[in-house]
Amino acid sequence: MTSTSTSALPVSSSAAVPRYAILVAGGSGSRMGADRPKQFLNLLGEPVLLHTLRRFTDPAVQLAECVVVLPAEQFATWEQLCQQHHVTIRHRVVAGGETRWASVRNGLAELKQYPAGLVAVHDGVRPLVSAVVIEQTFAAASQHGAAVAAVAPKDSVRGLAQQGSYALDRSRLRLVQTPQCFELNLLRRAYQLPELPTFTDDASVVEDLQPIYMVAGDYRNLKITTPEDLIVAEALLRAEQGAQQPQ
Ligand SMILES: Nc1ccn([C@@H]2O[C@H](COP(=O)(O)OP(=O)(O)OP(=O)(O)O)[C@@H](O)[C@H]2O)c(=O)n1
Ligand SMILES: C[C@](O)(CO)[C@H](O)COP(=O)(O)O
Description:
Elements: E1 19-24, E2 42-43, E3 46-47, H1 48-56, E4 63-70, H2 75-84, E5 92-95, H3 100-109, E6 118-123, H4 131-144, E7 146-151, E8 157-160, E9 165-168, E10 175-183, H5 184-190, H6 202-206, E11 213-216, H7 227-244
Parallel strand pairs: 1-4, 1-6, 4-5, 7-11
Antiparallel strand pairs: 2-3, 6-10, 7-10, 8-9
Bound molecules: cytidine-5'-triphosphate and the ligand C[C@](O)(CO)[C@H](O)COP(=O)(O)O.
């Protein structure tokens, strides 16, 4: 199913290359253990996914098209939430697949009418992504073909061995976030290859075709995965809203 609501996305003529986004929200949220998928949980009065949609469809991002991937059985839930929250942001809704990889592939198919451009893949459950991170990741993809947001680990990191464990050099490691931005046709080629069990994100799907450039992510750009993430996200959002109030 494809659904679109009324108002047009604000595409600026200054965007030299058209930009698209695929917001993947096709998961079930098993680690959250809630009564519904975590993308629909309430975060300061609005569903997590609505926060994410608002960030990506902000006029500053200059998106030409936004695709939201959902579990097929949740279309009605999302439609009802959009009505309840008076959402008029134009977006397409498509059914996800068994895995994140399959959901992204379905999202990409929804962009088939576009010959070229840049596409961001973003987790629907990263509602705190900033305009700066989105912009810098798109800009780096425009220059390098493939770019992902990432942050340095703050903790010490150990690898697991058959017996015990061993220290890893964390200065050589990065924690990868989304957005992950790509030239549209590069991402298409990568998603024509067979799915591997090692794919955890889009960079791992693309990296055999193109080196992945890393952009400074943001520790606030957390992925809502387990219940404490929601508490942290709420605190971060309150701080953001407080900072926007006039003194
Ligand atoms: N078949 C799937 C699986 C995941 N995702 C999306 O990919 C993002 C990252 O996945 P994750 O945090 O693992 O979400 P879930 O799969 O929902 O959670 P869990 O692994 O705890 O079940 C989420 O926005 C999720 O909705 C998706 O679109 N389709
Ligand atoms: C795509 C991702 O958010 C990058 O950190 C992550 O790989 C998703 O992993 P998950 O196992 O689906 O939560």
